[in-house]
Amino acid sequence: MSAAATQTGLFDCRDAYVATLETLAAADNRIVAVVNDSVGSSKLGKFRETFSERLVNVGIAEQNMVGVGAGLANGGKIPFVSGAACFITARALEQIKTDIGYSDANVKLCGISSGVAYGELGPTHHSIEDIAWLRAMGNITILVPSDPWETEQAIRAAAANEGPVFIRISRMGVPALERPADARFEIGKAEVLRAGGDAAIIANGTMVCRALEAAKALAADGMAARVVNMASMAPLDEAAVLAAAETGAIVTVEEGVVRGGLGGAIAEIVAQHTPCKMKMLGFPGFLPTGSAEFLMAHYGLTADNIAASVRGLLGR
After folding, report:
1. Average pLDDT of the chain?
2. Under a CB-based contact definition with an 8 Å cutoff, are residues 92 and 65 in contact?
3. Position 2 pLDDT exceeds 60
4. 153-167 average pLDDT score
5. Bridge partners of 110?
6. How many domains does the chain have?
7. At residue 145, what are phi and psi to the nearest 5 degrees?
């Protein structure tokens, strides 16, 4: 694994992102990086040193950054446009819509430090609406990897995928998830990390490890909860959602707003095809200032509350 663990055994997925980008760039000179004065926060210092002519720093000008990325794509390059997720999506939403989405430009948007990673900096720095905004555009592939392995795979898949892609890259420490040796990442496909027929927990990003912890606690009480990693938000694996709905109870968990995000996306499918009990865990809207852990605990994004939500749906 390319990313280094901390003493707590947790990984910063930015490390997997930059290591993978450097490997891809060494093999393909079309790959370039575009940043908004975010070389440090994107951890692209080594990339700049190795590929000095293939990194464009536009300064604190996110709208220009997205436009430059679209121009490079039009010139045959494969630009990875990298910066804080809150600023890429909020400040440059019109450029994402017009220059990249409408134009179907081959640009890879890398939203760094997504969700509430910048917790203490407050609502201006929380990136919790990004998935909802981008899902509304229709033709942008949206990936929300859960750990270093999946981050690497998502970056590789984005580079190989023709067309616009948004990858949500967390800076908060997450564990490396256990997977079989033949595990594969595929755009448009969900990953069942734990089998179960009593209920289903559908999560992505930093919430997947918490969903697995919740399922383990439920198993100790005799309840078998399926855990589905929905890293591919667009396109969404509808078959996996319908299969989860057959359990009769779904809890969705996301580090973002539930309206239009993962919970909303799952509800759209379930309501039209296989109605079942649902509980959507996430954020209600603007959040107070506080650490990431405080915010997630305050709004119930913990293994204990996920497990309690499943018990509530099952009446246990």
Report:
1. 95
2. yes
3. no
4. 98
5. 82, 167
6. 2
7. -70, 155
